[in-house]
Amino acid sequence: MVIKKMHDMGIRSEHAYTAALASIGLSVATWVASLRVEPGTGLARADRWGIFIGEWAPTFFGLGVALSHYEQQEGTLTASVHELREQKKAG
Known about the structure:
Blueprint lengths: L1 H7 L4 H25 L4 H13 L1 H19 L6 H10 L1
Helix pairs in contact: 1-4, 2-3, 2-4
């Protein structure tokens, strides 16, 4: 139900995979930023920030897989959002 709703909103598996990769990069960036901005708090706090952001990646990858399966079932895996809208208008 949630996956169908996301798909209907135009969110595709590629978007979820991109978010997962971005969260990995953001995890490293927040770790480095925490080390530089809060030098007195030590490595442990920077690690917690990096891990917190890094935990988003598996969720996004999971959503990507679920969306990919839904797209394969619906036959829209290679269709763009624009093509899907045109199909809805025509049909």
